[in-house]
C-alpha cells in the first residue's frame, strides 16, 4: 500500500505589500475596471445618447443613489469609535440632507426634473430594471454581510469618481443642452465630496489592512464594486438596444 507523504504544513504566510504597493494595486483596479470605460458611458460622453436613454439612466441610477445612505448606515453600525461613526454619518447627511429639500438625493430628483422626469416617477421606482435592482442589492448586501474593511474598501471606486464627474458635467453642457444646467448641481457637489470621502476611506483601508490576506480582500472588494457599477450600466445599455437599431 502506498504511503505517499501528505504535506500537512500550513501554506507559507505571504508578506504584506508595502503601503505604496497596496495603494497602487487599489488604484490600478479603478484604472482598469471602473465604469468610466463602459461603452454606455463612452456613448454618454460622446453625445450619442438619445433623450429616452438618458432618462432611463437617470431613473435607474436614482435607485443606486437612494441606496447609498442605506449601505452607509450598515457601515456606520460596524465602526468601533464615535470619531469614525461621526465621520461616516456625514456621508448619510450628504445624501439625505440635514433637512427636507436638501442633500444629494434631492439634487438627483432635480436632475430628473431638468431632464423631463417628474419626481413621483423616480420616487415610485416602478421603472427600475430587474438587473439594476440585483446590482444594487448586491452592493447593499455586501456592506451588510462583509467585514467593515471590505465594505469601506468597496467605496474606493470614489477614487475614480471625481474625474468622471468632471467629464460628465462637460459632456452634459456640450451635448445635452436641453437639460437645464441647474440640474447638474448633483455632479458638481460630488467632485469635492468624492475627493474627501475617498481620501478618508483610503486612509482607513491602508491603516486596517495589516496582513496580505486583508490587503487581497480589500482589492477583491473594490473589484466587486466595479462589477456592480459595470453590470448596472450593462442593464441600462441593453434596455436601449432596440431603440438604436
Ligand atoms: O455617478 C457616478 O459614476 C458615481 C459613482 C460612484 C462610485 O464610484 O461608486 C458613486 C457616485 N457616483 C455617487 O454619486 C456617490 O454618491 C457614491 C457613493 C459611493 C460609495 O460607494 O460610497 N459611490 C458613489
From TrEMBL:
Q: Give the Thiaminase-2/PQQC domain ranges.
A: 24-234
Reactions catalysed, semicolon-separated, are:
6-(2-amino-2-carboxyethyl)-7,8-dioxo-1,2,3,4,7,8-hexahydroquinoline-2,4-dicarboxylate + 3 O2 = pyrroloquinoline quinone + 2 H2O2 + 2 H2O + H(+)
Oxidoreductase listed as a keyword: yes
Check the record and name the InterPro entries matching this protein. Answer: Haem_Oase-like_multi-hlx (IPR016084), PqqC (IPR011845), PqqC-like (IPR039068), Thiaminase-2/PQQC (IPR004305)
MF-aspect GO terms: pyrroloquinoline-quinone synthase activity
Q: Which residues form a coiled coil?
A: none
Identify one Pfam family in the record. Answer: TENA_THI-4
Pathway listed: Cofactor biosynthesis; pyrroloquinoline quinone biosynthesis; Cofactor biosynthesis; thiamine diphosphate biosynthesis
Sorted alphabetically, the keyword list is: Oxidoreductase, PQQ biosynthesis
User: What Gene3D superfamilies would the database entry show?
Assistant: Heme oxygenase-like (1.20.910.10)
Q: What class of enzyme is it?
A: oxidoreductase
Keyword Hydrolase on entry:
no
Under Enzyme Commission nomenclature, its number is: 1.3.3.11
Function text: Ring cyclization and eight-electron oxidation of 3a-(2-amino-2-carboxyethyl)-4,5-dioxo-4,5,6,7,8,9-hexahydroquinoline-7,9-dicarboxylic-acid to PQQ.
HAMAP family xrefs: PQQ_syn_PqqC
The family database entries (NCBIfam families) matched by this protein are listed as: PQQ_syn_pqqC
The similarity annotation says: Belongs to the PqqC family.
Q: What is this protein called?
A: Pyrroloquinoline-quinone synthase
From which organism does this entry originate? Streptomyces coerulescens
Gene of this entry:
pqqC
Amino acid at each position: 500500500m502506498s504511503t505517499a507523504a501528505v504535506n500537512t504544513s500550513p501554506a507559507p504566510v505571504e508578506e504584506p505589500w508595502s503601503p505604496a504597493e497596496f495603494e497602487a494595486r487599489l488604484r490600478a483596479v479603478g484604472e482598469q475596471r471602473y465604469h468610466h470605460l463602459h461603452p454606455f458611458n463612452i456613448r454618454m460622453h460622446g453625445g450619442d445618447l438619445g433623450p429616452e436613454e438618458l432618462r432611463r439612466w437617470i431613473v435607474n441610477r436614482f435607485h443606486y443613489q437612494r441606496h447609498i445612505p442605506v449601505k452607509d448606515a450598515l457601515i456606520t453600525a460596524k465602526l468601533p469609535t464615535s470619531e469614525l461613526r461621526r465621520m461616516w454619518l456625514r456621508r448619510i447627511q450628504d445624501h439625505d440632507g440635514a433637512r427636507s429639500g436638501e442633500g444629494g438625493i434631492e439634487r438627483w430628483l432635480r436632475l430628473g426634473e431638468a431632464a423631463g422626469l417628474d419626481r413621483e416617477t423616480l420616487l415610485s421606482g416602478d421603472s427600475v430594471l430587474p438587473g439594476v435592482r440585483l446590482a444594487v442589492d448586491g452592493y447593499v448586501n455586501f456592506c451588510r454581510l462583509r467585514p467593515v474593511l471590505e465594505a469601506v474598501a468597496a467605496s474606493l471606486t470614489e477614487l475614480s469618481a471625481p474625474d468622471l464627474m468632471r467629464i460628465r458635467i462637460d459632456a452634459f453642457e456640450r451635448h445635452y443642452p436641453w437639460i437645464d444646467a441647474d440640474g447638474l448641481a448633483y455632479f458638481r457637489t460630488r467632485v469635492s465630496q468624492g475627493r474627501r470621502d475617498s481620501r478618508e476611506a483610503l486612509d482607513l483601508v491602508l491603516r486596517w489592512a495589516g496582513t496580505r490576506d486583508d490587503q487581497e480582500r480589500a482589492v477583491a472588494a473594490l473589484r466587486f464594486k466595479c462589477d456592480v457599477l459595470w453590470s448596472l450600466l450593462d442593464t441600462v445599455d441593453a434596455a436601449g438596444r432596440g431603440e438604436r437599431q
